[in-house]
Specification:
This protein has seven helices and 20 strands. With 332 residues, it is α+β, with helices and mostly antiparallel strands. The chain has a six-stranded mixed β-sheet. The protein has a five-stranded antiparallel β-sheet with strand order 4-3-2-1-13. α3 crosses α7.
Length: 332
């Protein structure tokens, strides 16, 4: 099924069920007011949501209305826990080569992971509001899993059962702030503002055969200012799948219902399918020509991130965001 959160002026919005073709929606207010409420009692509530989903797809939803992604918050507007892993290790290898550094010796043994801000996620069409272009504004197109409760010490197979929903993400990164933060030994803080999410989150079964091995096996498309910049295959070169990332997280803690686990920007070993971030293109330019020439995002730029099924239909709806300057900084 497909779920969205509509903006009703509250922090957590109103949960809605969305049709498979993303054309109509139906409020889930009689079942669960918010997605977090549904996740807190998923075993009981999910079958009720699925029944409404089937009714909506059959055209029998008596209170159905036209679905408008512009009215959506993030499917889960805020979370108790959000972590991001690095599953596409070729990104790390290329970044190290471009910077003239050695690749970490244990890169393929243990997932790299950081804990990011989760108090507010951006909706799919919310602008990216920042103060300075000089911060190095970059998009990072990826996929995240939303979990049920997952116990400490869970194996990857056990963690797999805890993955209830998937969504697209734009893990916005301020590249020029990142080096100093990483050098401090305390990881990301200011370099990682609020992450944006697709209009809908979907249950893995919506992907059919494209959900296999704990991976989403479809291309993820990114377009900057209307120009396609990449469509790498999300499952092709993923070293650590979502169950493995979740199991790594849960080695020393439990993950509560509504935890969000992303796998980093999608990247392939071969770069012919393009990139999921500007920094990836810049690293290639450095490796080939010795200098990066592609600029990071500027005020007024628009990024679109979307995944299409084999029939060409959008699965999650599109993230489409414009970079805007914070009001307090305009005119300076």
């Amino acid at each position: 099924m497909k779920l969205a959160t509509l903006n009703d002026g509250t922090r957590d919005g109103q949960l809605a069920v969305v049709s498979r073709d993303l054309k109509t929606a139906h409020l889930a207010d009689g079942i669960a007011s918010t997605l977090q409420r549904a996740l807190d009692d998923w075993t009981f509530i999910a079958p009720q949501l699925d029944l409404l989903y089937q009714t909506l797809n059959s055209g029998r939803g008596h209170r159905a209305f036209e679905f408008d992604p512009a009215n959506c918050m993030a499917p889960l507007p805020r979370s108790h826990l959000r972590v991001a892993g690095v599953s596409y290790l070729q990104q790390v290898e290329r970044a190290c080569k471009a910077a003239g550094r050695d690749v970490p010796a244990n890169l393929r043994d243990t997932p790299l992971m950081y804990q990011g801000a989760s108090d507010r996620f951006l909706g799919a069409q919310d602008p990216i509001v920042l103060a300075y272009e000089q911060w190095g504004i970059d998009y990072e197109a990826g996929i995240a899993a939303i979990t049920d409760d997952v116990a400490m010490g869970s194996t990857a197979d056990q963690a797999h059962m805890g993955i209830k929903l998937l969504m697209l993400v734009n893990d916005i990164t301020l590249r020029n702030l990142a080096p100093d933060e990483l050098a401090s030994g305390h990881g990301y803080l200011q370099a990682k503002p609020a992450m944006a999410c697709s209009p809908v989150a979907i249950t893995p079964d919506e992907l059919g055969d494209a959900w296999r091995g704990g991976k989403v096996c479809l291309p993820l498309r990114s377009s900057l200012n209307g120009k396609l910049t990449g469509q790498p295959a999300a499952g092709a070169d993923m070293t650590f799948n979502y169950p493995q990332l979740l199991a790594h997280l849960c080695q020393t803690r439990s993950a509560g219902a509504g935890s969000v686990v992303s796998a980093g920007g999608v990247a392939n070993k071969e770069m012919k399918k393009g990139f999921s971030s500007i920094v990836e293109r810049r690293n290639q330019e450095i490796m080939v020509d010795g200098v990066a020439i592609t600029p990071f995002m500027l005020f007024g730029d628009t990024i679109r991130i979307e995944m299409l099924a084999d029939d060409g239909k959008s699965l999650f709806g599109a993230i489409e965001q414009k970079v805007e300057q914070a009001e307090a900084r305009k005119g300076r």
